[in-house]
């Protein structure tokens, strides 16, 4: 039984916790002043709480995490019914029936799906019955039309059927009271079907996180508008990050470009807090003279800017912003750096907010088709194309170079190749770790 069928309202919201006054101690940097990417990811995730459960229509709960145990209130099928269009009979009346020597039974009624017989079936008689219609009392088998002459007053039956033939018995799929689903399950289309099948219209789930995406940089132009000749380029990051967040299950608000203006940036972030479970920014966090996010974020909440031993994605920012301490991930502006940072930090945060497991991409080992070189000191997230041969063996080719502006080769890739910070060279034919970049 789902919560809504029984209790009509959600569990009381948990008490609001006191907002933290400082961020917890971040991971210690290495000798080069860089943090380990996995330690940084854990540190960020430790500060993220799954969203409180919410009651939703089952169709809207697709891909969300169930927050209640569900048991069946009814059996499925709910009654014995026919699996075929044909005649409900007593099996004994068909014994020894054949094409040459058919059994002949009087047809005494018709049962369509959604109706019931007006009497019990007596020996020597048959009732027409349609697929899904309830079996009449007294009948213990169904003879499909193809084994009869389809008679309307009398019917000739050309084959013997055993007891139970073509009957779908009550509870043969699900029995009343049976435990169906456990809290924590991520709802898929089959689960939606099962919930609806047992009559449940609403369930308690963790809602889609509302993710606000902001990009920064006075050089950026909204796609669709003309570029001038003064070093402008299109804002690809806010679109890419919004799409990636949506694919990860979020409800996305793409704010788009804010120029390198501190007041405008501070106002934009503050204005967005009201509809955000997470804010993601791109750009303006490195060492530049107009790194606006880095400049204003400290005035808005608790923030931490650091450098992580990964390439791309070295500069990273994290904060808990405003009175409600809304998490904010501040990503570097280079498009590939932004995307890789999304994969490493933002996607797991979205999944934690949603309460779905696993938080991380499941690593797949793939054999390199060529030598892979890496500059040691930073973990590498290279773009690759993984192919799977018919035997299930994965191979990978690197796509494009390591440059973090290479949007074209990012699009051509279907995986990230993840190398440890101390890796220098991997000969062709050896295996590497890859993350498949599927949009789910
Ligand atoms: N002196 C140093 N300079 C830089 C360092 C460093 O350590 N010392 N780190 C470099 C690395 S690594 C990265 S990554 C970038 C990150 O810089 P920012 O996060 O401040 O990003 P921006 O400077 O705003 O932009 C970098 C680059 O990306 C383009 N960009 C920005 N936003 C978008 C967008 N929405 N769509 C498309 N392209 C975007 C921007 O035009 C720049 O070309 O810093 C290095 N510098
Ligand atoms: O970290 Mo930057 O992201 O190497 O280009």
Automatic annotation (TrEMBL):
Reactions mediated catalytically: adenylyl-molybdopterin + molybdate = Mo-molybdopterin + AMP + H(+)
Compositionally biased intervals (Low complexity): 11-22
Pathway field: Cofactor biosynthesis; molybdopterin biosynthesis
Enzyme Commission numbers on file: 2.10.1.1
Molecular function GO labels: metal ion binding; molybdopterin molybdotransferase activity
Biased composition range(s): Basic residues: 1-10
Claim: Magnesium is one of the keywords in the record: yes
Pfam families referenced in this protein's UniProt entry, alphabetically: MoCF_biosynth, MoeA_C, MoeA_N
Keywords assigned by UniProt, alphabetized: Magnesium, Metal-binding, Molybdenum, Molybdenum cofactor biosynthesis, Transferase
Alphabetized InterPro entries for the sequence: MoaB/Mog-like_dom_sf (IPR036425), MoaB/Mog_dom (IPR001453), MoeA-like (IPR038987), MoeA_C_domain_IV (IPR005111), MoeA_C_domain_IV_sf (IPR036688), MoeA_linker/N (IPR005110), MoeA_linker/N_sf (IPR036135)
Region (Disordered), start-end ranges: 1-33
Cofactors (names): Mg(2+)
A GO CC term assigned to this protein in UniProt: cytosol
Domain MoaB/Mog: 212-352
Keyword DNA repair annotated: no
Taxonomy, superkingdom: Bacteria
Record GO biological process: Mo-molybdopterin cofactor biosynthetic process
Family: Belongs to the MoeA family.
UniProt function note: Catalyzes the insertion of molybdate into adenylated molybdopterin with the concomitant release of AMP.
Protein name as annotated: Molybdopterin molybdenumtransferase
Species assigned in the record: Enemella dayhoffiae
């Amino acid at each position: 039984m789902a919560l809504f069928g029984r209790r009509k309202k959600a569990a009381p919201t948990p008490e609001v916790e006191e907002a933290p006054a400082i961020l917890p101690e971040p991971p210690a940097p290495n000798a080069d002043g860089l943090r380990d990417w996995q330690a940084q990811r854990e540190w960020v995730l430790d500060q993220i709480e799954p969203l409180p459960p919410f009651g939703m229509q089952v169709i809207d709960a697709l891909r969300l995490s169930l927050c209640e145990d569900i048991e069946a209130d009814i059996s499925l099928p709910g009654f014995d019914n026919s699996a075929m269009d044909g005649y409900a009979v007593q099996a004994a009346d068909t014994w020894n029936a054949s094409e040459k020597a058919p059994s002949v039974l009087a047809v005494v009624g018709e049962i369509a799906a959604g109706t019931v017989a007006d009497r019990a079936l007596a020996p020597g008689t048959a009732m027409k019955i349609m697929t899904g219609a309830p079996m009449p009392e007294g009948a213990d088998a169904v003879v499909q039309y193809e084994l009869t002459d389809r008679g309307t007053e009398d019917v000739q039956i050309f084959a013997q059927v055993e007891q139970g033939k073509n009957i779908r018995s009550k509870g043969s799929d699900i029995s009343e009271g049976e435990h169906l689903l456990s809290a924590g399950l991520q709802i898929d289309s089959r689960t939606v079907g099962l919930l609806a099948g047992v009559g449940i219209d609403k369930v308690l789930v963790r809602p889609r996180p509302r993710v606000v995406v902001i990009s920064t940089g006075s050089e950026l132009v909204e796609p669709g508008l003309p570029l001038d000749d003064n070093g402008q380029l299109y804002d690809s990051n806010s679109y890419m990050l919004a799409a990636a967040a949506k694919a990860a299950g979020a409800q996305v608000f793409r704010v788009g470009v804010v120029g390198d203006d501190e007041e405008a940036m501070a106002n934009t972030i503050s204005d967005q807090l009201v509809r955000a479970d997470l804010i993601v920014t791109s750009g303006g966090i490195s060492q530049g003279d107009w790194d606006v996010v880095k400049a204003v974020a400290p005035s808005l909440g608790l923030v931490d800017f650091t450098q992580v031993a990964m390439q791309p994605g070295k500069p990273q920012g994290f904060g808990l912003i405003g009175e409600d301490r809304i998490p904010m991930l501040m990503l570097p502006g280079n498009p590939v750096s932004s995307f890789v940072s999304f994969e490493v930090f933002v996607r797991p945060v979205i999944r934690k907010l949603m309460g779905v497991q696993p938080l991380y991409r499941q690593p797949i080992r793939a054999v390199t088709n060529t030598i892979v070189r890496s500059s040691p000191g930073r973990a590498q997230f290279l773009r690759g194309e993984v192919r799977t041969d018919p035997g299930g063996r994965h191979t990978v080719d690197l796509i494009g170079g390591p440059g973090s502006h290479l949007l074209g080769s990012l699009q051509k890739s279907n995986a990230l190749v993840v190398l440890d910070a101390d890796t220098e060279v991997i000969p062709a034919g050896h295996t590497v770790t890859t993350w498949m970049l599927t949009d789910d």
